[in-house]
Amino acid sequence: MCALICPKGAITMTEDSEGFLYPVIDKDKCVHCNLCEKRCPNNPSESNTNQKTYISYCKDGKAKENSASGGMFYPIAKYVIEKNGIVFGVCYDDNLIAHHEYVTTLKGLKKFQGSKYVRSDLRDSYRKVEEFLKQDKYVLFTGTPCQCQGLRAFLKKEYNKLITCEIICHANPSPKVLELYKKNLEKLRGTKVKQIWFRSKLNGWKNSTPIIKLEDGTSFEDPSYYRAFVSELINRPSCSDCRFCGPKRYSDFSIGDLWGIDKIDATIKDDDTGISLLNVNTPKGFEILDEIKDDLYLKEADTEQVFSYNHHCNVQPHKNREVFFKGISDGTINENNIIKYMNKYVKVPLYKKIINKSKRVVKKIIKK
């Protein structure tokens, strides 16, 4: 956002040794207008106070099947498409680089569905959103909470036809790590990786083992990248000091997996095909919800209780994060061995496995 709004073009986004982009200021061009600081999306205003949280899922079975959880993105996007609007989301290019793109058809929505688990390249999406809004088009922008906040800061003004939908984000992994991981898989398998499903429902919604499809038609499961992600080994440092991860939300909608449904509401049958956490945060969001509610299963839930079982606070980096990225920086960890190192650094010690298993056994005994 700051690079886009700089009136002198003094800010460029530069990749660091870990694979993350950061703004770099050309001091010779900078006129010290401080616009980048004044409009910084990392300093959000007060969030909405009339939000509601729902247990939800899309009634369209096919849309739900193609989604990572309960398929709540699809009915919101469908609402916009049917108004001849534009939907921005994240997809892969031919080289499996995650980036923001836009579509205008229901068929095009499929490539946005499913979890990508990597920081997407925004490219020129903010400018495109602004262009479509100025043409009086409905626009749905989906992304991480910070990306949605960045868009609002870039636009500076409210647009009645802009709808923002944020994923309930765990963290942003390094695109460089994903690229090295993909190349390591290709070297081990002797053929190119064609697709990665980080949250395939082939083995059920709760099975989080990614499925890798190769160009020779074969598929296999590999958990190493996913485990490194959820263990906080490969994520952006600022994600440990995120301003957007709490129950208070800024976008019109917040969507994600709803874990702990058996504890939140035992009356809801969990058939392992996906249940969504849906937060509606703005008057605009409630207006749209009223129009699409017939396409959804909805049951209001207590916000604090729901978020107590789902991502709602900052998490600290893995203890081995620094040494891991040092290896990335100096080339010790590369496309020939990154899988080995990811598995090495997130491996759970035997004594912890024993303790965790003992705790589970004790809980079962107490329940009986």
Primary descriptors:
three-stranded antiparallel beta sheet, about 35% helix, 14 helices, alpha+beta
Computed CA radius of gyration, to the nearest angstrom: 21 Å
The number of helical segments is: 14
Structural class per helix/strand content?
alpha+beta
Largest sheet, described in full? 8 strands, mixed
Query: How would you state the average pLDDT, rounded?
Result: 92
Euclidean distance between termini CA atoms? 55 Å
Q: Quote the beta fraction.
A: 15-25%
Task: Give your account of this protein's structure.
The chain is 33% helix and 19% strand. It is built from 14 helices and 13 strands. Strands 5-4-6-7-11-12-3-13 form an 8-stranded mixed β-sheet, sandwiched between helices. It has a 3-stranded antiparallel β-sheet with strand order 8-9-10, with helices on one face. Strand 4 (86-92) and strand 5 (98-103) form a beta hairpin.
